[in-house]
Amino acid sequence: MKVVRYADRPDLRAIRYETLAKPAFPEYMNHNVPGGKYWSRLSDDFPDLQLALLDGDELVAELHSIPTAWDGSEGDLPGGWDESFLRAYEGGRRPDVLCALAIAVRPDRQGERLAARMLQEMRAAAERAGLRELIAPVRPTFKWRYPLIPIEQYMTWRRDDGTHFDPWIRAHERVGGEILGPARASMRIEASVSDWQSWTAMQFPDDGDYIVPEMLAPLYVRRGVGCHVEPNVWLRHRL
Fold first, then answer.
1. Which helix (H) or strand (E) holds 170?
2. Using only C-alpha atoms, what is the Rg of the chain?
3. What backbone torsions phi and psi does residue 177 show, to the nearest 5 degrees?
4. Geometric angle at alpha carbon 47, from 41 and 52, rounded to 5°
5. Average pLDDT over residues 97-112
6. Phi, psi (deg, nearest 5) at residue 102
7. What are phi and psi of 56, to 5 degrees?
8. Quick one: pLDDT at residue 111?
9. Domains of the chain (ranges plus CATH)?
C-alpha cells in the first residue's frame, strides 16, 4: 500500500466522495457552514495534509487535516470541528498544531486497521509540517447508540479491561492519544425541515426533539427549522 497526496491525484479527488466519504458519514454532515465554505480548498491550501491510501490502484482510505492555533491550555481549546476550521482560515493566529478533520475507510476494507494506519500517517504529517502536536475532535463510533447520554458521561466509559468503551477513541488511545475533554458543540448544522427530511429519510411533522439513526445527539425542530449540534471528544497526540 502507498500514501499519495490528493493534490497530485485529481482522479482520486473525483471519486473520493462516493467511494469513502458518502459511506462513512451521514449526508447531513456535508452541510455545516465551515465545511461548505472551505472544504474544497483543502487540497490546494494544505496539500501535504490531505492524503489517500492506495492498495494497488484502488482507493481504500483517506485522511484530512488542517493546521490551526492552540496554545495548549484548556481555556484556549477550540469548541470543536467548526471552530478549528474557522480558526485556521479566519482566526489570524499562527498555527502550531494539526487538527484532524476526517478519516474514512472504504466499507469493504473495514476491520483491517486501516483507520489506525491513517491516524499514524496523520501524526507523521504533523511532524513533517513542524507542528507541535496533533489534536482531534473525535466522532465516537458508538455514541449514536446512546444519543441521550451527555458526551461528558460517555467519554468516561471503560470496558472491564480498562480500555475505552468506544472503538474509535480506543484506537486513538492505542497509538498514544490522550483524552482532553468534551467538545460539546463540535459541529452545528441548521437547515429547513424539508432538507432534514431529504437527508435522513424521516418525517418531522411537528416541533420536537427527534432521535435520528446515526446521529450522536437529538435533532431539535422548531418553527420549520431543524438544528443538530454534534458532540465530540477532544484527544491529543503528543509528537
1. helix 167-174
2. 18
3. -70, 145
4. 105
5. 94
6. -165, 145
7. 70, -120
8. 87
9. 2-186+232-238 (3.40.630.30)
List CB contacts of 1: < 8 A, sequence separation 6 or more.
53, 54, 55, 60, 117
The alpha carbon dihedral of 65, 84, 135, 166 has a sign of: negative
φ/ψ of residue 192, rounded to 5: -65, 155
- Summarize pLDDT for 63-87 with one digit per residue, the tens: 999 999 999 998 999 999 999 999 9
Q: Where residue 92 falls among pLDDT bands split at 50, 70, 90?
A: confident
pTM of the model: 0.93
Cell of 128: 513533517
Please, are residues 229 and 187 in contact by the beta-carbon 8 Å criterion? Answer: yes
Q: Would the pLDDT of 192 be above 90?
A: yes
Q: Which three cell numbers stand for residue 228?
A: 443538530
